[in-house]
Amino acid sequence: MLRHLGLSLLVPLLFAPGMAQALDEPWNPRVGDALTGPRAPLPKDWVGLRSIAPETEILVMAGHADSQGLKGSGTPGEAVGRLGAPPMRAGITDELYWNILTARAVVEAGRRRGLAIRYYEPPFFSIADGGNPNTNWSVGQRHGIQGGYAMEIHYDAYGPDGRGSGVIPALTRPFNTIDESLAREFGAYPWAYRGGLGGPRRGITLLEIGKLEGRLEQALRDPASRDQTLEVIANRVVDALQQGLKPQLERVGNAVPAPGPRASSGGE
To answer: d(Cα 94, Cα 63) in Å, to the nearest integer?
Structure first.
């Protein structure tokens, strides 16, 4: 009863007149992002300097879309993991559920604005072989090798296990202006976070939207605010993508050289 009451009170608070404008204001580190919460309090030790051609195709994927029931299936979110709410969809974590909806919303918003952008989802939610050609890792790696920009959408763990919003850049290419633009909008993780995650080691940038808890998760779960919440998040992502694709003087180099990929130790 209290949880339902909390959701009903959230909608007028989050989307009251003037709130949409507040969501577009620059991030204030003293209060955190208006919707997505605090940014990861970790040092940014890289700079994205390599310019990206405006026609570069962007591949957007939902994080953990092929690892359900396996190691690295994503966070259940605070509502399920701590408050006892039912999952949004049986058989998958709530993170994957919101990863999918957010990734699709990003692609739809990007296409409306004329970006070369597409969405990929594996044919199965559980693929035990990380080298299978249908996994996010394999498809994203091929896309990067062919000159595209590959990214995965994620939501971070709730509570002390989560860090917050931020971008984890791909490690198999120079850090670029899209990476940098996403970092300005959402914050950044160190380039070798947790020793280098499986996606970045395969040329895939990871974007943590925010910790799946509190105000953000409530706004996503409430049908009255869900669509607008996804729209706000998607537009922030697309704004950053467009900014990163603007023609710029070519500047080669990085604050930290990107290492080659390491062998995977399993789903991440």
So the answer is: 11
Q: What is the pLDDT of residues 117-159, one digit of tens each?
A: 999 999 999 999 888 999 999 999 999 999 999 999 999 999 9
Residues whose CB is less than 8 angstroms from the CB of residue 82 and which lie 6 or more positions away in sequence, other chains included = 158, 159
Our count of domains for the chain comes to 1
pLDDT at 7 over 80: no
CB 136 within 8 A of CB 122: yes
Distance between CA atoms of 131 and 170, rounded to whole angstroms? 18
pLDDT at 10: 35
Can you list the alpha helix ranges (DSSP code H) found in 117-223?
Answer: 136-145, 177-186, 214-221
**Which among 151, 138, 137, 210 has a CA at the least distance from the CA of 179?**
151
In a domain, 29, yes or no: no
Res 177 pLDDT > 70: yes
Q: Is the pLDDT of residue 259 over 70?
A: no
Q: Which residue blocks in the chain are alpha helix, DSSP H?
A: 2-14, 19-24, 77-81, 94-112, 136-145, 177-186, 214-221, 226-245
Instruction: Give pLDDT tens digits for 81-110.
Output: 999 999 999 999 999 999 999 999 999 999
* Contact between 267 and 71 (Cβ < 8 Å): yes
Q: Is residue 75 part of a domain?
A: yes
Among the listed residues 265, 248, 56, the one whose alpha carbon sits nearest the alpha carbon of residue 144: 56
Structure tokens at 252: 């080669």
**Which residue segment(s) compose the domain that 188 sits in?**
2-13+42-245
